[in-house]
């Protein structure tokens, strides 16, 4: 699948910090059951790569990606674990379209966006969306950069996601609200499926 196809699977890409490997498969299954298929497992815990490996191998319907990729070696490790896409908070020095998995690089400014476009990217993570202008930033980027589309992440919620998704240059949003830490720790997979179903029903 292309990166655009992956991002268009659902209006929301869950941003997941998974503390324990045992949580990975039931969490992913709960999200997929609710209609969210592209899952970003952030590389912020020691178990992240093992979680990606488990989800890739055991959860039917899930398209697992790796978030918080900061280096080329992390991109390679994510690919070897089974990730189908990568997400970075910024532009990785020397990295472009070529690589083991497609990347969604983060941008916050017009200069960064121009640099990303020069490398061949047309899909970007607007990050941190709530700090760098939110919906206003998407509107401002639309005219000078009509070839760029975005997945805003950072401060996105069920309440404000529709405002982002209403913008023509917004492919989807990234959000952590669909997998609250307390629900994951408690194994409340039913609650997570319910939250995922609400997110999947958002209109684009």
Summarize the topology.
Layout: H1 3-7, E1 12-16, H2 21-33, E2 38-42, H3 48-58, E3 63-67, H4 72-81, E4 85-87, E5 103-104, E6 106-107, H5 110-118, E7 123-126, H6 134-142, E8 149-150, H7 161-165, E9 173-175, H8 181-186, H9 189-200
Parallel strand pairs: 1-2, 1-9, 2-3, 3-4, 4-5, 6-7, 7-8
Describe, in plain words, how this protein is organized in 3D.
By secondary structure, the chain is an alpha/beta fold. The protein has a single domain (3-200), classed as TIM Barrel, CATH 3.20.20.70. Helix content is 39%, strand content 15%. The protein has helices spanning 3-7, 21-33, 48-58, 72-81, 110-118, 134-142, 161-165, 181-186, 189-200, and strands at 12-16, 38-42, 63-67, 85-87, 103-104, 106-107, 123-126, 149-150, 173-175. The strands form 2 sheets. Strands 5-4-3-2-1-9 form a 6-stranded parallel sheet. The protein has a 3-stranded parallel sheet with strand order 6-7-8. Helix 2 packs across helix 3 (48-58) and helix 2 crosses helix 9 (189-200). The longest helix is centred in the N-terminal third of the chain and has 13 residues, at 21-33. It is globular and about 45 Å long. The two termini are 20 Å apart. The model has no long low-confidence stretch (mean pLDDT 97).
């Amino acid at each position: 699948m292309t990166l655009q196809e992956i991002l268009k699977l659902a209006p929301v890409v869950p941003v997941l910090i998974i503390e324990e490997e045992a949580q990975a498969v039931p969490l992913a299954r709960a999200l997929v059951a609710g209609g969210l298929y592209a899952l970003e497992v952030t590389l912020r815990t020691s178990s992240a790569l093992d979680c990606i490996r488990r989800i890739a191998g055991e959860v039917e319907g899930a398209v697992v990606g790796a978030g918080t990729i900061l280096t080329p070696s992390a991109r390679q490790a994510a690919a070897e674990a089974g990730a189908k896409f990568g997400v970075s908070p910024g532009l990785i020095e020397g990295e472009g379209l070529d690589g083991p998995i497609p990347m969604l690089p983060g941008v916050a400014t017009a200069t960064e966006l121009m640099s990303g476009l020069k490398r061949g990217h047309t899909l970007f993570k607007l990050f941190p969306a709530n700090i760098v202008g939110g919906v206003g930033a998407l509107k401002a980027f639309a005219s000078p950069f009509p070839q760029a589309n975005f997945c805003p992440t950072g401060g996105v919620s069920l309440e404000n996601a529709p405002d982002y998704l209403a913008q023509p240059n917004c492919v989807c949003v990234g959000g952590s609200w669909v997998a609250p830490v307390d629900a994951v720790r408690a194994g409340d997979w039913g609650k997570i499926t319910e939250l995922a179903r609400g997110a999947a029903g958002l209109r684009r």
